[in-house]
C-alpha cells in the first residue's frame, strides 16, 4: 500500500433523522436538513453540514425493512481504498467479512465490511464532484470542532486488530496508555498524525466496534445539551492528554457517540 487509508466520511444510521438532527444540532452545532434526498432504492439520505459550510458526514434513515433485518442506530466510518473489490478479497482472506457487497453510487464504489473481530466499517473508492480533483477529505480533524476528532476501536483481540489495520490500511501503531486492569490503550497513526486508538473490550461491551468522538466547542455545554435533548451520558467528561476532555453518550435513537473538546468554565 503506497498511501495510508484515511477516514473520508462518517455516517449516522438512525431510525429518526429529525430527532437526530435536533440532538446533534444542539450538542455539536451541525445543520441536518429536515427532508432527505431519495437516493438509490429510495433511501432517505441527508448531509450533515458544519457551520463553515463543509460536510461532516451523512445521515441514513433506517426504514422498516432495515430495522426488521436487524439494523440498529449507530455511527459508521468510511475508509478510502484504491480498489474496493481487491480490498474485499484481501480482507476476507485475513478473516474479515462482507456485510454489504460492493455497490456503485454516484459518489463512488462502496462496500460494508467487518474486521476479523467483527467491527463493521465501510470501504470506499470515492468519485470527486465534477470540476474537483480527488483530494483529502476534511471530515476528520485532530483539532477542529464539528469534525470527528478521534477514532476508537474496542475489540476482542487488540493484537489481531492492530495487525489487520496496519497491514490492510497502512497505519502505524506507536505508544500506549496503561489503563490498569482494563489493559492498554494503544495509539494508531496515519503517517505522523494520531487518528485514534485500539483498546480491549470493556465490561458491558458485547461486540467489537468503532466509536467516533466529535469535536465540540465546550465539553460542559455539550454535556448539558446531551441531557437536555434526550441523550444518555455513559461516561462523564474525563481529562485526556493535552488538557481537553472526552465523554461518551447514547443519542436519543440509541447510537453510541463520543464528544471531545475544551473545558471553558
Automatic annotation (TrEMBL):
Q: Where is the VOC domain?
A: 6-126, 144-262
Q: Which Pfam families match?
A: Glyoxalase
Concerning InterPro entries, the annotation shows: Anthracycline_SecMetBiosynth (IPR052164), Glyas_Bleomycin-R_OHBP_Dase (IPR029068), Glyas_Fos-R_dOase_dom (IPR004360), VOC_core (IPR037523)
Q: What name appears for this protein in its UniProt entry?
A: Glyoxalase
Q: Which organism is it from?
A: Sphingopyxis witflariensis
Amino acid at each position: 500500500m503506497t498511501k495510508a487509508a484515511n477516514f473520508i466520511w462518517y455516517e449516522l444510521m438512525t431510525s429518526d433523522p429529525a430527532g437526530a438532527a435536533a440532538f446533534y444540532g444542539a450538542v455539536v452545532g451541525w445543520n441536518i436538513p429536515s427532508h432527505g434526498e431519495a437516493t438509490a432504492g429510495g433511501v432517505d439520505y441527508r448531509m450533515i453540514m458544519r457551520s463553515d459550510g463543509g460536510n461532516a458526514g451523512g445521515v441514513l434513515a433506517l426504514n422498516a425493512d432495515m430495522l426488521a433485518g436487524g439494523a440498529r442506530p449507530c455511527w459508521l466510518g468510511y475508509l478510502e481504498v484504491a480498489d474496493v473489490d481487491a480490498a474485499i478479497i484481501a480482507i476476507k482472506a485475513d478473516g474479515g467479512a462482507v456485510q454489504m457487497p460492493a455497490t456503485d453510487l454516484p459518489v463512488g464504489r462502496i462496500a460494508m465490511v467487518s474486521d476479523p473481530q467483527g467491527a463493521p466499517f465501510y470501504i470506499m473508492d470515492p468519485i470527486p464532484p465534477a470540476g474537483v480533483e480527488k483530494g483529502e477529505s476534511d471530515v476528520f480533524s485532530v483539532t477542529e470542532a464539528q469534525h470527528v476528532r478521534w477514532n476508537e476501536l474496542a475489540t476482542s483481540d487488540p493484537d489481531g486488530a492492530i495487525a489487520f489495520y496496519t497491514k490492510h490500511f497502512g497505519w502505524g501503531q506507536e505508544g500506549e496508555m496503561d489503563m490498569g486492569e482494563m489493559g492498554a490503550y494503544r495509539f494508531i497513526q496515519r503517517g505522523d498524525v494520531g487518528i485514534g486508538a485500539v483498546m480491549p473490550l470493556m465490561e458491558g461491551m458485547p461486540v467489537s466496534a468503532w466509536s467516533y468522538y466529535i469535536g465540540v466547542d465546550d465539553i460542559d455545554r455539550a454535556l448539558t445539551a446531551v441531557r437536555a435533548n434526550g441523550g444518555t451520558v455513559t461516561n462523564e467528561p474525563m481529562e485526556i492528554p493535552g488538557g481537553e476532555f472526552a465523554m461518551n453518550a447514547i443519542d436519543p435513537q440509541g447510537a453510541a457517540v463520543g464528544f471531545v473538546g475544551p473545558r471553558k468554565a
